[in-house]
Amino acid sequence: MFRMLLFFAAMWGFAPTVEARSTKNPFRVEAETLALAAGAAGRLRITIAVPKDHHIYRDMVEVVVIDAGGLELAEASYPPGLKKPDPADPATLRQVYDMDVIIEVPVAGVVKPGVYPVTLQVTYQGCKKSLCWMPQTDEIQARVRVRVK
Length: 149
Fold this sequence. Notes:
The protein is 10% helix and 50% strand. It has 2 helices and 12 strands.
């Protein structure tokens, strides 16, 4: 009887499905605002928040600059991950991040003061013990604030 009620509730939209709740992507991508003095170089920091008991694969992480906002940006640098056996092939080790990871994008010295908007595309694949999400691509906005010396 209870199963029948759940079935009808789901059919009429009164109950969320278990699959929808359990497969929601729990990872979050953020960019910090970078503050620089005119002429100084810096590093724009992007954080991928990795929840407890989850991980992302290092070889599946990529940051692409979509719009540099008039700035000169270099390629992103990634920290090394922990080497762990790949569940699909335990003989192969893969680098994983099992905690928040900070990726840095170098910014060349900017002479003109102002606020420069930067658009980045961050791709990653996150997993937990028995489930991997499809690779995700998030487009994020960052800012570089340049002040007079």
